[in-house]
Amino acid sequence: MAELYSVPKLEDYSPAAMDAAVRDLLNALEQEAAKLSGENDWKAFRDRWMSRKSGVLMQITEWLKLAPKEQKRDVGQRVNEVKAKIEAAVDAAEARVNSQASSARLVSERVDVSLPGNRRPLGVKHPVLRVQDEIVAVFKAMGYSIGEGPEVESDYYNFESLNFPPNHPARDTQDTLFIAGQEKKQQRDRLLMRTHTSPVQIRTMEKQRPPVRIVIPGKVHRNDALDATHSPVFHQVEGLCVDTNITFSDLKGTLDHAFKSLFGSSVKTRFYPSFFPFTEPSADMQVSCIFCGGKGCRTCKFSGWIELLGCGMVDPNVFEFVKGNGYDPAKVSGFAFGMGVERIAILKYGVDEIAKFYLGDVRFLEQFA
Ligand code: PHE
């Protein structure tokens, strides 16, 4: 490294000697200024040339002090010129260093306005829950309240009190998972994953005297293999209406209204004889095919109708289990229904496989946003 300039002691203060001394100094100033990079360099440069204690500028005032009288004027002028040049060089160097720093920042921090922004996508309600809420809202508008019950249920609520006696073959249609290690318990106390939302009918009637109008949404479990339309876990909305003089026409009118609300007023409903241990008579409700309007298509298997839910008049044997709470089968009557939420969602949205609801694939789900 070249040696740094240091201020010489002058012997000769003649104009020619001063010219040479000033030239050396300004050369050194220019060369040092040219090498600066970064703020720290600049600070060192500034201090070296301008520090009040020992800066070059300070030192050349010695020239003035030591100059012979007759040269003082000339030397003083030169010192002033040099001072102005040093100050200008330090200022210029500062400006240069700052602009280098900011252009370096611009390179490293540059904003590419063509990049997509930071998106924080908001989630939306899952289509199954959305349809579940829509169904519930239709009944809420008719004055129904909303209830819930446990997913792990006892044999008593899931089967026995719903008039499925032990070993009754109707239990086979609703096979499910039992909680292990309950052999010592009486059958009615054994726990299982509920196969339908109907146990909440009894739970509601145990707590609330008639009249009752309630819908119960929830998850249910069955030993069903997964296929295009069945899943071992799915959702139901149960309904129960009990009062004096409730008839089958109340059931028909209520469900007809509900499905016109859900699928549009041109939809027709019909009731087909069926069997459930806890309703008598029992029916399957069908809606006119929402795809072909009833003409017949692949979805409705060319029948014009689609089966949507199970329903019926509450079996007097069911009321017997809650008779003490005001449900004397001689005095009250009622209807109940239970529908699969996924099944309705499949029809509403034209989904081809029930499993798509559960895969969590955003490409599928975001269509419902
Ligand atoms: N719980 C029945 C099922 O899951 C549906 C149903 C509910 C039928 C209420 C009649 C009355 O298949």
Automatic annotation (TrEMBL):
Mg(2+) binds at E280. Residues 130-347 form the Aminoacyl-transfer RNA synthetases class-II family profile domain. It is found in: Cytoplasm. GO terms for cellular component: cytoplasm. It comes from the Bacteria. Binds 2 magnesium ions per tetramer. Its main location: cytoplasm. Gene3D superfamilies: Bira Bifunctional Protein, Domain 2. Keywords: Aminoacyl-tRNA synthetase, ATP-binding, Cytoplasm, Ligase, Magnesium, Metal-binding, Nucleotide-binding, Protein biosynthesis. It catalyses: tRNA(Phe) + L-phenylalanine + ATP = L-phenylalanyl-tRNA(Phe) + AMP + diphosphate + H(+). Its cofactor is Mg(2+). Pfam families: Phe_tRNA-synt_N, tRNA-synt_2d. Its EC number is 6.1.1.20. One of its GO terms (biological process) is phenylalanyl-tRNA aminoacylation. The keyword Ligase applies. GO terms for molecular function: ATP binding; magnesium ion binding; phenylalanine-tRNA ligase activity; tRNA binding. NCBIfam families: pheS. HAMAP family: Phe_tRNA_synth_alpha1. Belongs to the class-II aminoacyl-tRNA synthetase family. Phe-tRNA synthetase alpha subunit type 1 subfamily. Tetramer of two alpha and two beta subunits. This is Phenylalanine--tRNA ligase alpha subunit.
